[in-house]
Amino acid sequence: MIQTPYLATDGIVKIFDESGSFQGIVLIERKNEPRGIALPGGFVEIGERVEEGCRREMREEIGLEVEIEGLLGVYSDPKRDPRFHVVSVVFVARAYAPPVGGDDAKRAFIVPLEEIPWRELLFDHATILQDFLGARGIKSCWR
Amino acid sequence: MIQTPYLATDGIVKIFDESGSFQGIVLIERKNEPRGIALPGGFVEIGERVEEGCRREMREEIGLEVEIEGLLGVYSDPKRDPRFHVVSVVFVARAYAPPVGGDDAKRAFIVPLEEIPWRELLFDHATILQDFLGARGIKSCWR
Fold first, then answer.
1. Residues A76, B49: C-beta atoms closer than 8 Å
2. Residue A143 CA to its chain's centroid (Å)
3. What sign does the dihedral A3-B2-B82-B134 (CA atoms) show?
4. CB-CB: which of A3, A8, A51 is closest to B142?
5. Which residues in chain B have Cβ-Cβ distances shorter than 8 Å to A72?
6. Is A7–B4 a contact, with Cβ atoms under 8 angstroms apart?
7. What is the pLDDT along chain A (143 residues), one digit of tens a residue?
């Protein structure tokens, strides 16, 4: 029997207003354990592509139809999730409306890049966001 | 119970000779079903990072210690593997010795880029190699 790590996807969703100016990225407050602040995301389902899974999770968790810009990286440290081994494929995406928390997100909010609450971020999401800030323009990175 | 697609990793391994000149990439002839020509790779194990899984698979299947250069992309079409839904994280790597087939590889061989046997390639490995040829220098790509 084949056993591999669970597969998840997270999104760094850049929000722009009607005039096209960048407002910040979306973070959520998780409703379930582990609780805290995180990027929106969730498990990939059997039968869907990872980018489809990402768009679905963004729809369910932050109420947004997002446009995926590219892949930031694949995050696979066995200890990145305290519960079990979860590998996350992280995409950078954009949307043009405010997020609305749903599903696993108690609330969803826009955070300007200068105001990311680094110490409150769960999992390895601080690392992911550091990579994003370092990799803007979206080049390949992996860890 | 959480169910997600299986997670695998494949390697595009560039082989260089002692003088540093590029010889080609490594392909294998599979020992097990589905049979045919493919990139070396295999399932990621619980507890290992995907790049560790890639290096382990290259050791087991083509007998090489490879140096990973970067991520090519994440391939997740549910129909890419005829058996079940397998998502593959594909890395580009390099090595400085000839490959030796082992494990799931009946044989391993070096193929110059002009001689890739496109029609014999299994899974979506022709797509992956087209992306590699298009993305040289290793930029991000996903499908």
1. yes
2. 16
3. negative
4. A51
5. 140
6. yes
7. 899 999 999 999 999 998 999 999 999 999 988 899 999 999 999 999 999 999 999 999 999 999 999 999 999 999 999 999 999 999 999 999 999 998 888 999 999 999 999 999 999 999 999 999 986 544 443 33
